[in-house]
Amino acid sequence: MDGPVGREGTVTVATIEGVGAHAGEQVEIRGWLYNKRSSGSIHFLLIRDGTGVIQGVMVKKEVTPELFALADDLTQESSIVVRGTVRADARAPGGYELGITDLRVVQRAAPYPITPKEHGIEFLLDHRHLWLRSRRQHAIMRVRSEVIRAMCDLLDGRGFLRVDAPMLTPSACEGTTTLFKTPYFETTAYLTQSGQLYNEAAAMAFGKVYCFGPTFRAEKSKTRRHLTEFWMLEPEAAYFALDDVVALAEDLVAYVVERVLERRKEELKTLERDVTRLEAVQKPFPRITYDEAVARVRAAGAQMPWGDDFGGDEETVLSKQFDRPVAVTHYPTAVKAFYMQPDPQRPEVVLNCDLLAPEGYGEIVGGGERIHDLALLEQRIAEHSLPREAYEWYLDLRRYGSVPHSGFGIGIERTVTWICGLEHVRETIPFPRLINRLYP
Ligand code: 4AD
Ligand code: MG
Question: How far, in Å, from the CA of 133 to the mean position of ligand 2?
Answer without folding.
Answer: 33
